[in-house]
Specification:
The complex is a heterodimer of chains A (about 425) and B (about 375). Chain A is α/β, with parallel strands linked by helices and about 425 residues long. Chain A is built from 18 helices and 14 strands. In chain A, strands 1, 2, 3, 6, 7, 10, 11, 12, 13 and 14 form a ten-stranded mixed β-sheet that branches. In chain A, a hairpin with a 2-residue loop joins strand 8 and strand 9. Chain B folds into two domains: about 110 residues, no CATH class; about 200 residues, MetI-like (MetI-like fold, Orthogonal Bundle). Helix content of chain B is about 55%, strand content about 10%. In chain B, the strands form three sheets. Chain B has a four-stranded antiparallel β-sheet with strand order 2-5-7-6. A three-stranded antiparallel β-sheet of chain B has the order 1-4-3. Chain B has a two-stranded antiparallel ribbon with strand order 8-9. In chain B, strand 3 and strand 4 form a beta hairpin. In chain B, helix 7 packs across helix 11 and helix 7 packs antiparallel against helix 14. Chain B is elongated and about 100 Å long. Classes of the chains: A alpha/beta (about 425), B alpha+beta (about 375). At the A-B interface, helix 1, helix 2, helix 3, helix 4 and helix 12 of A face strand 6, helix 6, helix 9, helix 15 and strand 8 of B. Chain B: Keywords: Cell membrane, Membrane, Transmembrane, Transmembrane helix, Transport. Chain B: It is a multi-pass membrane protein. Chain B: One of its GO terms (biological process) is transmembrane transport.
Chain lengths: ~425, ~375
């Protein structure tokens, strides 16, 4: 019995460890007079830890003020909660928001223009910044931005003497050749709007034509047909359960086009030599366009003047080179300012992990999905469904996209304003 | 039933790479006793490992003189400082027909964990002192990774459990979950018993209509009420308090319905006899109806408890400080948008369901006894 107690006590000692960022923040905010809440959608893992580290560092320099990050589940939970908070009239000071969330919040005139706070946006990636510009005014600070990149199996490419493809044609040819040699499809993809967007953008497609949403354009049909043919011809494999990085090992794998936010998970799972390259594009000289995902930080109008002042300082801190470098290298997200690339933390990391420099290079060739308030629903429930039907149920791509277009139009027109 | 349970337990002992393999790993390295002995040799304490200030640990890799391996302590990305990577000296020296990788703590504080990466030339047979947590190809080398090179036996076996426990304030989460669930069961039972008795045994005009109305509320899906309930709680100032977690769930239509059916099955003669002896409605309820409906109470109690203990969406919406969050929200810490940490997730799941499994066995006995008792009547 005594021994058992000792063991339990020893385990208790083993469990105890140095203060966690969460506890440090709690202590920092307990003493503060002004607390600016930041609602976020990082449930856990590296992003949550990295954000908390940022906040701890920021709060250290504050006198009587603090930022308190509040995890609100996943991104969809977060937007649900913000909608509920609007209804209840109690919004936080800051929150993470996708471009389409911003469009929605702006309908309620709930956001503050970032520049009206006095935050300087020089040096911020222009593509990212333009995505949060509504009517010429910037409403968000690009924060955790990920970009699609090409993950590949160096060992397999080397074995068959296949170079990393530089354009779409080469990509398809390489996938076909490797699939024949290995006896199974080597290009893996998730049949969803993100994968589709890569092919769609690089075949010259654009979701908005004269300000109108078009899901069934010529390029869209071409993109979906290419994917469908890939499955038919045996060089593309749809992954329907879990992430691609959870399926490595279940057959020959050569390529996938996936978000840079998954980099650490790919690294963990892969037993082969993992390569990261810029995306194959339309022509040889220039990388293909990758879909940008991830959120921005917005500031709500309802916040008090003192809270807004904290938000201003925090956003400037987030954009500082060191904070950008630390946050980005920790998470696989892309630094949103050029200044971060000169920071020693970034340079040391990029020297050790050349893949990361590739991710940053890819971020200069970025495209966004349309910033419509309804996009979340369209992307998952309408366009996403059409893609699944074509890939998994072999529906005709044109018919599936026509149906999606009709559904999207109904959704957009039936909206009460 | 046993298979998913085994998978959960086995995964709770897997290294990140083992957990992410498409072909399932049935017996993870951490479950093999031979590795426990190897791990016991690494670190200051045979059980808990660690590397105190000024202390060294040496890992031996038998192998030929050329080509030499390389070793490093990887920096943990995302920290402004990394005392372990900065404070550990790594040396690779030749001796005794192999290579020694010596790690020395040059800092002033002890380290509980020292991660290690060894680059081992491909084509050279490998006999590591402890199976690596990950092994992947990197150019001309195998990249071998250990999440902790000084684990000690328990630190090695229970690595995921220790990580999971450290990831969130579980003590507080358990308290909130148990307190919320227990109050919901206790008060919920009391309210349901009163309402059900009235609907089953007290004649009053419009009784059937009231019952139908009560049942009708069962048809409204909970998600529809999410935002109205949230707004109501916000106006009451109850967000992020125990009131928000408990009060909306106290009156349960399911409980009323279940207990009403139980009371109806009791013979009317019992209540007539009680009435002749002068018992009022409350006496009839507490002295006759309740003792005879133990199985109903127990099953309602189990459902309510599990419902409250497993609730995810509601606590997520109405709470936000760590002090008010429940165990299920704690599990979210291991899931992210691009991947999941399955080892730690399963370890956390194992200790989160442990009380429920124990409670199940206790309640099962109660449940069977309850049924047996009614059978005798």
């Amino acid at each position: 019995m005594k021994k058992a107690l000792l063991l339990v006590a020893a385990l208790g000692v083993a469990f105890a460890q140095q203060a966690k960022p969460e506890d440090v923040i709690k202590e920092q905010c307990a003493r503060a007079k002004v607390v600016a809440e930041l609602w976020h959608g990082f449930t856990g893992g590296a992003p949550k830890a990295a954000l908390e580290n940022l906040v701890v560092e920021f709060n250290k320099a504050q006198q009587g003020r603090c930022v308190r990050p509040v995890p609100q589940g996943g991104y969809r939970d977060l937007s649900t909660k913000i909608k509920a908070a609007f209804a209840a009239g109690k919004v936080p000071t800051m929150a993470q928001a996708f471009e389409n969330n911003i469009a929605l919040y702006l309908e309620a005139k709930a956001l503050l223009p970032i520049e009206s706070l006095g935050v300087k946006l020089q040096g911020v990636n222009l593509t990212f910044l333009n995505a949060v510009r509504f009517g010429g005014v910037v409403y968000g600070v690009p924060f955790n931005k990920s970009i699609q990149v090409l993950y590949y199996n160096k060992d397999l490419l080397k074995k068959h003497g296949v170079p990393v493809p530089a354009n779409l044609e080469e990509f398809v040819a390489a996938a076909k050749k490797l699939s024949r040699a290995e006896g199974g499809p080597v290009y893996w993809f998730q049949p969803d709007a993100s994968t589709f967007a890569y092919f769609f953008f690089n075949l010259g497609g654009s979701y908005l034509k004269d300000g109108k949403l078009v899901l069934n354009s010529k390029e869209a049909v071409e993109a979906l047909t290419l994917l469908q043919n890939g499955v038919k011809e045996g060089w593309a494999k749809p992954i329907t359960s879990g992430y691609i990085n959870q399926n490595l090992g279940s057959g020959p794998y050569a390529f996938s086009v996936d978000t840079s936010a998954g980099y650490t998970y790919y690294l963990r799972a892969a037993k082969f030599d993992l390569g990261v390259a810029t995306l194959p594009g339309r022509t040889k000289g220039q990388p293909g366009y990758g879909l940008v995902q991830g959120t921005n930080l917005v500031v709500f109008r309802q916040a008090s003047k003192e809270e807004q002042a904290v938000a201003k300082d925090f956003l400037e801190f987030v954009l500082s080179p060191r904070a950008q470098a630390v946050f980005a290298t920790a998470t696989g997200y892309v630094p949103v300012t050029e200044g971060a690339l000169k920071d020693p933390v970034y340079q040391a990391y990029a020297a050790e992990n050349p893949d990361y420099a590739t991710i940053v290079r890819q971020s200069r060739y970025a495209k966004f999905e349309p910033a419509l308030a309804e996009w979340e629903q369209i992307r998952f429930d309408i366009l996403g469904q059409a893609i699944k039907e074509a890939i998994l149920n072999k529906a005709d791509p044109k018919a599936a996209l026509d149906r999606a277009q009709k559904l999207a139009e109904d959704l957009l027109s039936s909206r009460t304003r | 039933m046993a298979f998913p349970f085994y998978w959960m337990l086995a995964t709770s002992f897997k290294s990140p790479q083992e957990a992410l393999q498409a072909e399932p790993v049935w017996v993870p390295e951490r479950m093999k006793p031979v590795n426990w002995l190897k791990a016991a040799r690494l670190g200051d304490s045979p059980l808990f490992g660690g590397l105190g200030p000024g202390r060294s640990v040496a890992l031996f890799f038998p192998g030929p003189e050329a080509p030499p391996p390389r070793a490093l302590v990887p920096r943990s990305p995302g920290a402004f400082f990394d005392p372990v990577a900065d404070g550990t000296r790594v040396e690779v020296v030749r001796g005794e027909g192999g290579w020694w990788v010596r790690l020395t703590n040059t800092g002033e504080a002890g380290f509980r964990r020292v991660p290690l990466v060894v680059l081992w030339p491909k084509g050279v047979p490998l006999e590591p002192p402890l199976p690596p947590d990950a092994r992947r190809s990197q150019g001309e080398y195998w990249r071998l990774e250990w999440v902790n090179a000084v684990p000690g036996a328990l630190g090695y076996v229970f690595h995921n459990y220790l990580e999971a426990w450290d990831a969130a304030p579980w003590g507080r989460y358990f308290f909130v979950s148990f307190f919320t669930a227990s109050v919901q069961v206790a008060v919920g039972l009391f309210l349901a018993a009163l309402a059900a008795f009235a609907l089953a045994r007290i004649p009053f005009p419009g009784k059937e209509a009231v019952f139908v109305l009560v049942l009708a509320t069962m048809m409204v899906p909970g998600e529809v009420l999410l935002i109205p309930n949230y707004v109501l709680l916000a106006r009451l100032g109850w967000l992020d308090t125990f009131y928000a977690l408990i009060v909306p769930w106290l009156a349960s239509v399911f409980g009323i319905f279940l207990l009403r059916q139980f009371y109806l099955s009791l013979p009317q003669d019992l209540f007539d006899a009680a009435r002749i002896d002068g018992a009022g409605y409350l006496t009839q309820l507490f002295r006759i109806a309740l003792p005879l409906s133990v199985p109903g109470l127990v099953s309602y109690g189990i459902f309510t408890f599990l419902g409250a203990y497993n609730a995810l969406l509601w606590p997520l919406i109405v709470t936000q400080s760590p002090e008010m969050r429940t165990v299920q929200l704690g599990l979210l810490a291991f899931v992210s948008e691009a991947g999941s940490d399955y080892g730690a997730l399963m370890a956390a799941s194992a200790f989160v369901i442990a009380p429920v499994v124990l409670g199940y066995f206790v309640a099962q006995r109660q449940f069977i006894q309850g049924i047996a008792r009614t059978g005798l009547k």
